[in-house]
């Protein structure tokens, strides 16, 4: 088989990875579907950049992603690495061998400068997913508009600028890819679990945005 591929350990199935991004999870809309209940609906992505392949944990699953047993956020892969999505495991193959240290996590790009309103839009975009362990879908433009009490047209303009700032290419699942990148950069974080007696305090249920936001 030409190019990178994964071999699912339970079934032995060999699946070629797409030229750029391959999504993996338990949901119906992913490129590689795993049925293990420990896998989130949209769990992780394999990303190809030239001769390199890396895996990105989407950061919103309680069970996480591991490479050779170590939990990761974003990690360059080497031929033969074993990637675990929850309890499901797959071995990576077809990666050209280079003088490259696989133990090094791929460094994340610096987050772009954001206006206060752009930071609010990002927080609202990710809010539906952050209250659950499975990343189902980010908020729609209409839902963001209702949340922030602004027009849907204004939200769409903010989203267009955010796509440009985060270099999210045109195509399907653009809002989802933006949300994934925002969470990976730590600009919006999952809501921490709090004791039951404090559950009525709304301050413990809203996602937090990074102090990097600009006024």
Automatic annotation (TrEMBL):
In terms of Gene3D superfamilies, this protein maps to:
2.60.200.20, Winged helix-like DNA-binding domain superfamily/Winged helix DNA-binding domain
Query: Where is each FHA domain found?
Result: 22-72
> What Pfam families does this protein's entry cite?
FHA
InterPro entries membership: Cell_Proc_Reg/RNA_Proc, FHA_dom, Sig_transdc_resp-reg_C-effctor, SMAD_FHA_dom_sf, WH-like_DNA-bd_sf
Extract the ranges annotated as region (Disordered): 193-215
The record's SUPFAM superfamilies line, in alphabetical order, gives: C-terminal effector domain of the bipartite response regulators (SSF46894), SMAD/FHA domain (SSF49879)
The residue ranges flagged as biased composition, category Polar residues, are 206-215
What domain of life? Bacteria
Q: Which UniProt key words apply to this protein?
A: Phosphoprotein
PANTHER family, alphabetized: NUCLEAR INHIBITOR OF PROTEIN PHOSPHATASE-1
Would you tell me the protein name for this molecule?
Answer: FHA domain-containing protein
- Its source organism is Microtetraspora glauca
